[in-house]
Amino acid sequence: MNVLLTSVGRRVALLRAFRRELAGGGRVLGADASRLSAGMQDADAAYVVPPCASPEYVPALLEIVRRERVDVVIPLIDPELGVLARDRELFQREGCLALVSDPDAVTLSRDKRRSVKRFRELGFDAPDVIAPDLLARPEALDYPLFLKPLDGSSSIGATPVEGPDDLRFHLAHVPHSVVQSLIPGEEFTVDVFADLEGRARCAVPRRRLEVRGGEISKGRTVKDPAIMAQASGLVEALGGCRGCITVQCFRTPDGRVVFFEANLRFGGGFPLSYAAGANYPGWILRLARGEPVAPFDGWQDGLVMLRYDDAVFAPGLV
């Protein structure tokens, strides 16, 4: 069985997890718009492809699928999710599973304002979103608030807002943004695994102890039943979700679980969940073989991840 990770970038740990689960029974391929990618150097075969916004992107991936007899394609960045969701059937015709959520679910998750509103409609706690007309009167708002790009990724442009002048500054620099209430408490990322029918099979909350460049650098698994149950329920209620779904929430001092984002892909901190025993790569291979995945909560509680810098050396690459 062969797996293709697209926009593989720095996802070396994830790539190696798939290789470990294949155990010599297949290859892990990488695709990226740049050869200067650590994941491309570690892959069993690497392909430079056009950017995902290009009309040539999907044809290039399909050519790799045919040439390498790829069984599973897994997109790893937000901008390509909608592209692969739209053309998922093209991969299916080649006998390949493109593990991506439904187009409607992807579109919703990419709009931070709409997704938070939808969380509330489904009965889950979520931050208050400041209406655009109220943003024109910053002095009338209660602070602190939190601002982020409407369709952002990796926490780029996301920032607390302490007062009216601060709000004006950030609105000027992040024009397409959403402003929400700032929720007090501990921040968690929850890796939820959904099967091909959208059923949540596992949920691993990871407390974010330290973040660098928008990604977790230090974290700890926390077996919190309320977070696990609510995150699983949210993924199922959204509908059309498949594979690893990364849900973000706060646990407030009074025990509320407040969801503020859902990214329908592997998050950068997933290696912690894998090390704890949540075998999402192995389960994806099971789905590709047409085998069911049973519910699982036997992962290790209290496992701490301390990420560090490493390097790949590639002579003559440039």
TrEMBL record:
Domain ATP-grasp residue range list: 116-289
Keyword Transferase appears in the UniProt entry: no
A Pfam family this chain is assigned to: PylC-like_N
Keywords (A to Z) from UniProt: ATP-binding, Nucleotide-binding
Protein's name in the database: Carbamoyl phosphate synthase
UniProt source species: Anaeromyxobacter paludicola
Lineage of the organism: Bacteria, Pseudomonadati, Myxococcota, Myxococcia, Myxococcales
